[in-house]
């Protein structure tokens, strides 16, 4: 027997308003054809009045708790990944904690942008394994639309809003049983200017907007993801052929295809939601995971690989059995 953090339930939430490429092309100098060919994105959800990172996170958390058959009071740890918190402080995790009635435990945010969920799940797993809590809610939630420059067509067509959440529980399981088997994380601040926000409370006193040198980010993404996937599969002692589902960060269909090809994984094993949700940063992996759990693709016992790369640069991957 071995102690692992076991996945008990998943949930997600999207803003009500869906925005197609065609609708975007009415106000931005772009076209459905350009966006689909370069990225695979067809649609994204954009938060409206009253919808925030916090409200989406709370909805996703409630759905994950329901799927796990648990209540807020059962949760001792909340780790929320976001680059777009409701406020600079308090942490959005603290708002979620209060809303679901989990008061008294641990709650904090992590900032690793698009890799945020991978960072959050690794941190939560470590804390569960060290006995700091018994059950955790791990959330990725973003309202990227609030930090987009809608005049910059090279970035504003790429992102969307949403939230995803998972419930983890520390349990004794068999060696081939469920739970997180291995996680690997990395960062390299040398490239922080390639993908960043040009503002912040301590530098400009403004919120700022996303700035990205897309083609350069693309090249780093493929190399870094290939590296961390090799590393995490070796740490878990598994071969690519053993993987049932890859749940990647949803930035660009071409990155998903290139990464799958490199690993000899058939495209049918890659969960793709970038067409529907665009790049939702820290929310994209748990949103994709929840989508594939709820539509019946991911079943108990399946071996999953989650991976992401984002601003910083930061990148990471995780192997778990559902
Ligand atoms: N609509 C129409 N044309 C656009 C456009 C848009 N929304 N955005 C850029 N263009 C134009 C450019 O101006 C450029 O025109 P030019 O050739 O006349 O100068 C042309 O399209 C090609 O631009 P380029 O940036 O070279 O395109 P690309 O094939 O590299 O695709 C990205 C751009 C952003 C889709 C791609 O680089 C990418 O996905 N990068 C990774 C981004 C990413 O994953 N980031 C998140 C990581 S977390």
Please provide the count of β strands: 13
Which ions, cofactors or small ligands are bound in this entry?
coenzyme A
At the first level of CATH, what is the class of the largest domain? Alpha Beta
Sheet with most strands: strand arrangement: 1-7-6-4-5
Query: What's the overall geometry?
Result: globular
Reported by name, the CATH topology of the largest domain is Peroxisomal Thiolase, Chain A, domain 1
How widely separated are the two ends?
17 Å
Model description:
With 322 residues, the protein is of the alpha/beta class. The protein is built from ten helices and 13 strands. The strands form four sheets. Strands 1-7-6-4-5 form a five-stranded mixed beta sheet, sandwiched between helices. A four-stranded mixed beta sheet has the order 8-13-12-11, with helices on both faces. α3 (53-68) crosses α4 (92-100) and α7 packs parallel to α8. Bound molecules: coenzyme A. Coenzyme A binds at residues 30, 34, 38-39, 114, 153-154, 157, 212, 214-215, 217-218, 221, 251-252, 255, 279, 309-310.
